[in-house]
Amino acid sequence: MTTTDTAAGEIPQFSIIRTFDAPQELVWRAWTEEAELAGWLHPFGVTTESVSFDVRVGGRYRYTMINEETGQRFPTGGEYLEVKPMHRLVFTWGDPDAPADAAPVITLTLIPHGEHTELVFHLRGYDGQPGDGFVYDGWDEALTNIGRHLLRERLG
Fold first, then answer.
1. Residue 68, burial from CB neighbour count under 10 angstroms (0-12, 13-18, 19+)
2. What range defines the domain where residue 43 resides?
C-alpha cells in the first residue's frame, strides 16, 4: 500500500506501507544493525565495510551506494532524531554531512501482528509517486529487498 501527500504549499512527502513475514525484532534489526542493512541494500552496491551506525538520538549513520555499471559512488547518511527500539525510528536522510534541519526525514513505524510486522515508511521532503524512477521507486525496491532479506533470515 502507498500513500502520497503533496497539496499546494505543503511539504512534499509520501508513505509506503508493507507487511513483512517476520517478527518485529527482525525488522528492527534490518534497520539498526550494519550487517543486516548491508544485506538488504547489497543490490544497490552497499557493502558492510561502507556502513556505520550510532543508533541513538543525535547519533549518525552512513553508507555508500555504488552504481555497479558506472562505479559512481553515492555517500548517504544522516542523524537519528528519535529512537524507540522495536517501535519507531526517525532519521534524516541524504547527504551524510547535511545539517538535520535541512535534510529529508524518514520515519519508520513498526506495528507487530503476531509473527508479522507492518512497517509504515514515511519520507518527508520528497514528492514521490509510484513509477517516478527516482526516490519513491528506489525506496519501494529497497522495501522489497528487505522482505526478501527477512525471508532468508527466517529460513536460515
1. exposed
2. 13-151
Total of domains in the chain: 1
Element (H, E) at 154: helix 135-155
Q: What one-letter code names the amino acid at 90?
A: V
Burial class (CB in 10 A: 0-12, 13-18, 19+), 103: buried
User: What is the value of pTM for the model shown?
Assistant: 0.90
- Tell me the CATH number at 130: 3.30.530.20
pLDDT tens per residue across span 79-127: 999 999 999 999 999 998 888 888 999 999 999 999 999 999 999 999 9
Cβ burial of 2 (10 Å; 0-12, 13-18, 19+) is: middle
Express each pLDDT in 141-152 by its tens digit: 999 999 999 988
Phi, psi of 37 (to 5 degrees): -60, -45
Partners of 16 in beta bridges? 2, 121
